[in-house]
Amino acid sequence: MNIIAIMAGGMDGPVESGTIGRVIEQRGGTLHWFYRRSDDGFPLDIQAYDALIVFGGEVSVHDPALKPYFDDLSALIHRFYAAKKPILGSCLGCQAIAYAFGAKVKPQGFLEYGFTQLTLEDDCQTDPLLHDLACHQQLFEMHSDTFDLPIGAIRLMSGADVANQAYRIGDNTYGFQCHFEVSPEIVSTWTHRELIDNPSQDQTRVAELFNTVKEGFAQHKDQQDNFATTVVNRWLDLVEVPISIVEETRQ
Question: Can you say whether the dihedral through the CA atoms of 180, 185, 186, 191 is positive or negative?
């Protein structure tokens, strides 16, 4: 499996891809990284690639300065969608996919940070990734933006404070607002990078939130890891199906 991995923010992909990267490696897949900070651009020809993942980041889809970038990313997303190749978006990636399909991405007015209870919608009962999973999941969040649900998308998960938490478009395009892939080490890196010593943040409140997150990992890490491993493996099953079909037609 050859999978394009988009990193629009400042993260180090191989180090900060968490459970997503680990499961793909275990399944024998390869992530081909494209970084905005390196001006990598996007491939026009996707024939050599089997799927697309758009990871998270600290930037905003609605930033006017980044509109050309996210417009070009939207075109890449549509190339994969038209080719019926699976797409997965995490946090910023979820928002970028929604934007690609015409939905509005906007500030939500507060930082959703920490473990949040998310509810699986009824459509999850027959969803390829989320069927047979517990209807309530405690998953890590770190975002200040949200999005409208794209026309034709099926909402799969919701939260009390932020309604749109996961969706599917078509058969194999998925967006997850949460960061189900993270470890305590990854969250510590992100918190120090974006919140601690940031003059725009109340440092007393940041310290309280960070301590709460540490407690959250003690309570919910195993459950989140199981959720993430299941979801990523099932998504990779969707990636492998078209690969097997192509191999059969070549024989």
Answer: positive
